[in-house]
Amino acid sequence: MNYEKNTFKVRMCDTKGNTIKGKYLVRNEEGNSKKISGYFEIEIPRKIYKDYDSFKLTWIDFYR
Asked: Helix (H, G, I), strand (E, B), or coil: what is residue 16?
C-alpha cells in the first residue's frame, strides 16, 4: 500500500534529540555549507503497524 507524502510526521533532531528547524542537516555559513550533526525522526501512524506485520519505508534523499 502507498501512502501520501504527509502521512508521516518527520522532524530533524540534533545529537541530543532537540528539534532542529528547517529541511536539511546543513546550514550556510558565509557561502560555505556546513553539515549539522543529527538525524531524522519519522513518526509512523499507529494504524500502519497495528494492521500489518511489517512495512517498508523508502526514503529519497533529494539534497545530495
From this structure: coil
For the chain, give every domain's residue range. 5-51
pTM of structure = 0.62
CA proximity to 11, closest of 23, 28, 26: 23
Mean pLDDT of the chain: 82
* pLDDT tens digits along 40-61: 898 888 888 788 888 787 777 7
At 2, give phi and psi (nearest 5°).
-105, 145
Number of residues that this document lists for the chain: 64
Query: What's the angle, vertex CA 51, arms to CA 55 and CA 58, rounded to 5?
Result: 20
38: CB partners within 8 A, 6+ apart: 12, 13, 14, 15, 20, 25
